[in-house]
Structures are given as C-alpha cells and as structure tokens.
Specification:
Blueprint lengths: L6 H11 L8 E3 L1 H7 L2 E5 L10 H14 L7 E4 L3 H12 L4 E5 L5 H9 L3 E4 L4 H15 L2 E2 L6 H17 L5 E5 L4 H13 L4 E7 L4 H7 L21 H10 L2 E5 L1 H15 L9 H8 L1 H4 L3 E5 L7 H14 L3 E9 L4 H11 L3 E8 L9 E9 L3 H13 L3 E4 L1
Parallel strand pairs: 2-10, 3-4, 3-6, 4-5, 7-8, 7-10, 8-9
Antiparallel strand pairs: 1-2, 11-13, 11-14, 12-13
Helix pairs in contact: 1-7, 3-4, 3-7, 4-5, 7-8, 8-10, 11-12, 11-14
Length: 403
C-alpha cells in the first residue's frame, strides 16, 4: 500500500472491519445544539469495546498484514492508552504476542485495561515520542512488527471508516470538527468525506498545550506544554503522512484550552449521559469556545474515546460545579460568641443551600482576637442563588462575601 490513502483503501478497510467493530450510533443532540446554536450530531466511538476508535486502525493494519502473507512474530506499539488497547485486544483475538510501550504518566485505567487484554506493558519516558523511540528499539531487538498509532496508511484507512458511517447515518452533515493528536483520525475521515461530499467543511482541534500539528500546518510557533487532560492527543511530533493529508484535505485547525475541554466533558456527561476522556470532548470544546463560527451549521463530532481516569473525572466534575455556581465558597466574619456558628448555618439552611464543608478559623485569622472567620463550601443552585445566600447573611448582621 502506498503512503497515499484513498477512498478505495477506506472501503477495503470497512470490509475487513465489518462485524469486528461496532458501527457506532451517530445521532443528533438537540440539547447541545440549543446551547451552542447549531445542529450537533455525535458519533459515539466511546462505545467501542475498547472505548475508543483506535481499534479500527489497529485491526485494519493487522488484518492487512495477514492478507499480505506477512509473517508476524509479534506486534509492538507505543501509545498513551487507546491505541494500546486496540492493538492488544485484536492481537489477542488473532493469537499474537503484543508488547505496548506507554509513557510513565499514562492513566492507571488505561494501563490496567491494556494488561487485561493480555499485552505486556512497558512504561517508558514522559511523552508519546519517548515511548515510541523505546518501542522502535524493542521492535528491532525482538523482531516485533511495529504498529504505528497514526502515521501508517492502513491505520489511517481504518480510522477513515468512521467518515463512511457518519455520512451514511447523517448525509445532511455540512461540517466535521475532529480531535487531532498525530492526525490519523482526521486524515482518514477527511479522505473518505472529500471523496463522497467534497464541499464538507472539516476542522481539526488540538489542545493549546500540544499544538504540534497546528504549528506544522499553519507555520505558527505556539509553545508546547508538559501535560493536558486530553492526553490522548498529547503528541509532540505530528505524523509525516498525516501532516500532508491534513494539509491537502482539512480546511482549518483550531486550538482549545483546558477549561473548554473540562466544560465539554461535564456537559456530555450531564446532558448526554455519556462518558468521554479529554480528547473525546475536544470537538465540543471547539464549539463552546467559538459558537459564532458554527452558527446554523450541521456539525458532526466524534466522541473518540471514553477512557478517563476516575480521579481525574472527579476533579473535573467538581471544578465544573464551581464554574456553574453549584459549588460556592463563602467567607463569614463574626464575633466569636457561643451559638454564632449555629446562627450562620441556620441562615444558610433557610436560604436553601446545603453545606458541604465548614472551616472554623481562629488562630490563623487576621481578624481581631474576639472574632472568628468561618469558611463555608456550599451546594447551591447557581451563581444567583449563591449571591442570595451572601445577601441573607449580610442582612442577618454578618460580614459575608463570595470568594
């Protein structure tokens, strides 16, 4: 197979994958559409067995190698998690040894699931690029076949089957907004869509902390960060093949911030009752950041993965509650007299707020010795409700403020 990828390659991949991976739902979210001002259609790739689209490309690569009569001693991959699970799962199904090299900070949930598919896991380096170098070294030493997570024509073609399915399910789509790490997903989808519906607008999304593909395509010099909640697209060196395909077939690339991604994760969980990881929320994050750009359009988003660390999810949900005003922190200064705390909490209760935490501070306060500082973390309905609680405390004679 040449390095160019065409519609025929993606159709061949679809034939190989038929019955082996899910043709996941692609349905409209009316509620999200009302919020962002356009029609939003979600492709639920987080429902795949490995909770990610990555198994499409992995399986297509393995199946194509077998079709070509390639002798496979075993396979090795470098991945932050989702490609690892795809390779491990389908290697196990095909009776092949699988070795996966992962960055040391990979979420535990992804490591455990990869081990669960029978793979050998090697933790190495602080980034995907360092893990990839170690994987290539081990491939040479042990005679293993390296399965690249994105810069491989068969992998790209496998991911492109998502584009075929989206157009078949929702032919009226006019815009696709796709997360970009190394570029395999958007390259494959753009190849399919450009052949079948040339006028489609295709936009790639990267986290501002890992803008390598944006820099490569646009010639910008955005600095690279050290970490992101979207670790699935935290790629420091974009693919060579994918870069050219994106340059030819993708209309634009945009950046989103960590807060945009956090908000999108919370909204998908609250509104759609679906769990996505940071990379899986990147498309919606782009709509939230710049809704005017997509106003009135029919936008397809790929929820490309759902493997998120539970502790990270808990932190994101709590921060989302703070942003929405449903968790509020109030500081109350009062005379330190018997019963003062009871009077404060009574006012809060009468205002309809629920107390999550109470910190009663004397020694470390800068107030007069006869005073006490009480910090309350409250569950409230929204920011206006939190403001009402403060107003009621002030009306009761307490010095209270949100902070």
């Amino acid at each position: 197979m040449s390095e160019d990828v065409g519609l025929a390659d993606i159709q061949a991949a679809a034939a190989r994958l038929a019955g082996q991976v899910l043709d996941t739902p692609c349905v409209e979210s009316r509620t999200l559409g009302q919020i962002v001002g356009c029609q939003v259609f979600l492709k639920f790739e987080n429902l795949q067995f490995t909770a990610s689209f990555k198994e499409r490309g992995a399986l297509n690569k393995l199946a194509a190698m077998r079709e070509a009569g390639t002798r496979i001693k075993g396979v090795i991959a470098a991945s932050a998690g989702n490609h690892a699970q795809g390779v491990a799962h389908h290697a196990q199904r095909l009776g092949l040894r699988a070795v996966i090299v992962m960055p040391q900070q990979t979420p535990t949930v992804k490591i455990e699931r990869t081990l669960g598919f029978g793979a050998e896991v090697v933790l190495h380096g602080d980034s995907f690029d360092q893990a990839r170098e170690r994987a290539l070294q081990l491939a040479d030493e042990q005679g293993l076949s390296f399965i690249h997570p994105f810069d491989d024509p068969h992998v790209i073609a496998g991911q492109g089957t998502i584009g075929l399915e989206m157009l078949r399910a929702q032919p009226e789509l006019d815009t696709l907004v796709i997360a970009v790490g190394g570029g395999g997903l958007i390259s494959g989808i753009a190849t399919a869509v450009r052949a079948l519906k040339p006028g489609m607008q295709i936009i790639g999304v990267q986290t501002s902390r890992f803008p390598a593909m944006v820099n490569a395509i646009k010639g910008t010099a955005h600095p690279q960060g050290l970490s992101t909640i979207a670790e699935g697209i935290a790629v420091g060196q974009p693919g060579r093949i994918t870069r050219e395909l994106i340059r030819q077939r993708v209309d634009d690339m945009v950046l989103v911030d960590e807060g945009d991604i956090e908000q999108a994760i919370v909204m998908l969980l609250e509104i759609e009752k679906t769990l996505v990881e940071g990379a899986g929320a990147a498309g919606l994050a782009a709509l939230l950041k710049d809704p005017a750009r997509f106003a009135g359009r029919k936008v397809g988003l790929v929820l490309c993965g759902g493997n998120i660390d539970p502790m990270l999810l808990a932190a994101i949900l709590e921060r989302g509650m703070v942003r929405a005003g449903r968790l509020a922190r109030i500081r109350v200064n009062a005379r330190d007299t018997p019963g003062v705390l009871a009077r404060i909490t009574t006012v809060v209760a009468e205002a309809g707020a629920n107390i999550d935490e109470v910190h009663h501070q004397r020694a470390f306060s800068t107030l007069a010795a006869q005073s006490v500082e009480v910090e309350l973390v409250l569950q409230t309905r929204n920011r206006a409700h939190a403001g009402d609680v403060v107003a009621r405390l002030q009306a009761a004679g307490f010095a209270a403020e949100l902070y």
